[in-house]
Amino acid sequence: MPKINVLPKSVAELIAAGEVVERPSSVVKELVENSIDAGAKTISVEIKNGGVRYIRVTDDGCGIHREDVRTAFISHATSKISSSEDLDSIFTLGFRGEALPSVAAVSKLSMLTKTSDEDEGTSFEIEGGEEKSFDAAGCPDGTTIIIRDLFYNTPARMKFLKKDSTEGTYVSDVVAKTAISHPDIRFSLIRDGKQVISTPGDGKLLSCIFSVFGKEVSDSLIECDYEYKSVKVKGFVSRPLNNRPNRNLQYCYVNGRFVRIPAAAAALDQAYKNRIMAGKFPVCFLFTEIPPGKIDVNVHPAKTEVRFSEDSVIFEAIYYAAKAALNKGDNKPPEVELSGKKDVLAKKMPDTVQMSFAEKNVRKDNDVPVKESASAGSEYVVRKESRIAEKEENFSKLFNEKIGTSVSEGGYFRDTSGVFQNLLSKDEVRQKNIELLRQQREKKFSTVPFSENEEKHDICDTDNSISVSTDEQTDSSVIADGNTDNKDFPVNENKSKENELSVSEDTALPVIPEYSIVGEVFATYILVESEGKLLIIDKHAAHERIIFNELKNKGFSEDSQMLLVPVSVPLSGKEYAAVIENLHVFSEGGFTVEDFGGECVIVRDCPVSLQKEDIVAVITEMAGELLRGNMRPVPEKLTWLYHSTACRRAVKAGDVMKKEETEALVRKILSDSDVRYCPHGRPVMYELSKREIEKQFGRV
Question: Which of 52, 130, 454, 662 has CA 20 to 30 A from 329's CA?
């Protein structure tokens, strides 16, 4: 047996430093968190050579009293906690008292600090854990820490560092994550003399995201605010089309601390399922508030991992928060932006000329101004107000006389008599047409859109038919909440009972915007004019999503069958525990699963769509999802059946549709906010604004 020795202090400090300080970004993280705990409102970070040669962190926090400066560099010396009971109610970012001694053990550190009640500050220098100087100094309130030559006394660790540019990127990532978590603090990062991050510190999360990640990211976000049991979730999630090929922009915070939450990633995947393309991931900035007693942050030295007492509650809270945000905020089709090619033939607009009036032409009460010859910088003199009023009166009189004969059979206003040629502008004609179309449409929808000899049934007898119901109430009940797969969606506890009681029955009805079907192109895309925009609808993708939602609502759980010979499924220890703790999840999916002992379960009932040979793979797959924190594991086999059935039954590109079918499909799409993406994540429709079209013709 080798002899047991007590390590020297210098060696022990290096071991402790290795747990906390892995690279320059680790140093910046620890120092910035100390500044936040000190109540700073402005934090400035500067690095050179990726932070290996120089790091400076300056804040305007409370500072450190002179008598506590030396104590701060002793291991496990902290002002955050004082007893074991404090570990159950940690609200600060730091609490172990390891950051400063660990950083000082592997660098040359200088500190300037001053509290508001001290007349002069304190200067302290320490290298490799050994004190070099301790003097009084003049400095503002707050603390400035400068790190030079990181890992100068541990060359083995220096070898594992990457290039300066890479290490600098890691530092930028740490500052960005911390800045997002505290939008009320003004952050700045200077990298090799260039400022790369600067936040306003105005307390607005969206403006902070804009400052750090730019307009493209901030414009793609939807706000979410949800409360489930004792967990509150706030922040932003991205629209399904604004996705990324990785999870690098999934920022999750727990009680203001950036952490990695596997349950959050699983919840987002489930919330975006069938809305986002395979291999793509949403962007999120989610802040979860949970009682400190239900979370353990003392798990990882870097405090980037936490342990929850109830992972399922965290999953459900984030899942419903993201789902509610998508249902509420993702109801706008993506816009089409045409190329901004300049039209060389477009007429150039004349330069604006300031109007000026001679003294003799200034209008008086009873004067009738006359047109003067235009001098330099002058324009026509304004018409007399009495003449304008007289003309408007004549227009009103003539319009009332002729309105009965100026409406054509198609419902459009036409100036057949020429009476209004000089009185009615093009915009006014268009407005009258819109009003008449609205009246005509209201009259049209008040009757059944079928001929007298047609009965209420599916329009086509083939599998790709589009079902049209004349019962408005039945149609409205299915899509009243704008989402057809949320029949068990819990009530957001943020909403007061007063607001719930104030909702009338009329508010549950879908609001269908005014629209006019223009036609169909390539036998694939339906063109619809609605509210000054042109909607381009992929009829196959839209119909596929509608059928998919109907299948998903019905589910296969109602069509379960008892197995003649029950199937035993062997599992690993963790999988077995996850299945036994969540047997209700399998019951909701149409399975009857029982404990068989010896880390094995037995399946007695399963959905009729599954074959016996699929059961073992499906149960194992669902157990793996439960381990990831996914409390809604849907087997890929069943998901594939949803997709396959919907795709086969949906109308195909190239199929000719009747007018009634097109009308029913468009109306369903515009009334159901959940029909925005096909089950594979492709958009159902795009919109092209009138202004974008006019730009191409040089009208604007």
Answer: 662
Number of Cβ within 10 Å of residue 219's Cβ equals 12
The set of residues, in sequence order, having a beta carbon less than 8 Å from that of 368 and lying 6+ positions away, is 384
C-alpha–C-alpha distance, residues 592 and 619, integer Å: 11
Question: Average of pLDDT values for 480-506?
Answer: 45
CA-based nearest residue to 440, from 475, 409, 473: 409
Q: What is the pLDDT of residues 650-668, one digit of tens each?
A: 888 888 888 888 998 998 8
Facing residues of 46 across strands? 56, 190
Q: How many CB atoms lie under 10 A from the CB of residue 301?
A: 17
In the structure, what pLDDT confidence band is assigned to residue 452 with cuts at 50, 70 and 90? very low
Q: Which two tokens stand for residue 302?
A: 């870097």
On the question of pLDDT at 367 being above 50, the answer is no
Encoded tokens for 264 = 């959050």
**C-alpha span between 679 and 277 (Å, rounded):** 9
* Residue 654: how many other CB atoms lie within 10 Å: 9
- The per-residue b/e assignment along 361-381, b for 16 or more CB within 10 angstroms, e otherwise, is eeeeeeeeeeeeeeeeebeeb
What does residue 695 show for φ and ψ, rounded to 5 degrees?
Answer: -65, -35
pLDDT surpassing 50 at residue 255 = yes
| Token pair belonging to 654 | 């190239």
Alpha-helical runs (H) found in 384-467: 385-402, 426-445
Give the orientation angle of helix 311-329 with respect to helix 262-271, to 10 degrees.
Answer: 40
CB-based contacts of 643, cutoff 8 Å, min separation 6: 548, 679, 680
Question: How open is the CA angle 273-685-437, to the nearest 5 degrees?
Answer: 135
What is the Cα–Cα distance from 4 to 237, expressed in whole angstroms?
Answer: 54
Q: Judge contact between 600 and 566, C-beta under 8 A.
A: no
Per-residue pLDDT tens digits for 515-556: 889 998 988 999 999 888 899 999 998 898 888 888 777 655
Non-local (6+) Cβ contacts of 579 within 8 A are 571, 586, 593, 601, 619, 622, 623, 626
Q: Which long-range contacts (CB under 8 A, 24 or more apart) does 269-273 make?
A: 269/630, 270/319, 270/630, 270/632, 271/318, 271/319, 271/322, 271/323, 271/326, 272/240, 272/322, 272/326, 273/634, 273/639
Which residue intervals of 233-297 are DSSP H helices? 262-271
Count the alpha carbons within 13 Å of 532 in the hemisphere toward its beta carbon: 7
Q: How many angstroms separate the CA atoms of 360 and 376, rounded?
A: 17
Q: Is the dihedral of CA 450, 454, 460, 466 positive or negative?
A: positive
Among 89, 92, 253, CA closest to 183: 253
Task: Kindly tell me the sign of the dihedral angle through the C-alpha atoms of 33, 35, 41, 45.
Answer: negative
Helix, strand and coil content of the chain, in percent to the nearest 5, comes to: 35, 20, 45
Q: Do 324 and 492 contact (CB within 8 A), yes or no?
A: yes
DSSP string across 104-168: HHTSEEEEEEE-TT-SSEEEEEEETTEEEEEEEE---SEEEEEEESTTTT-HHHHTT---HHHHH
pLDDT band at 173; cut points 50, 70, 90: very high
pTM exceeds 0.70, yes or no: no
Give the span between the Cα atoms of 413 and 206, in whole angstroms: 47
Show the beta-strand stretches assigned E in 184-297: 186-191, 194-198, 221-228, 231-238, 250-254, 257-258, 284-289, 295-296
Q: Which burial class, exposed, middle or buried, applies to 698 when counting CB atoms under 10 A from its CB (0-12, 13-18, 19+)?
A: middle
